């Protein structure tokens, strides 16, 4: 029975008509029946401000590359990702 359900034909879905499991990843149905999405929740000033504070706090964290050593870890400035994270990802962006 499990194999029959696993390999059965399923309806094709797209972003205009997503499958229920996909919709549940990006939204939440409140007890009132109202669907809450990222966009609708950011319309609430308190939620927007909380997200803003968290995003700004994470943006202030330094991105540094480290390598494991026998004593623990040490900074790895020679790693190829180090320049991208710490200096400049490309000519159009700053870190």
Automatic annotation (TrEMBL):
InterPro entries for this protein: Phage/GTA_portal
Region ranges (Disordered): 72-95
Basic and acidic residues bias locations: 72-89
Record protein name field: Portal protein
Organism placement in taxonomy: Bacteria, Bacillati, Bacillota, Bacilli, Bacillales
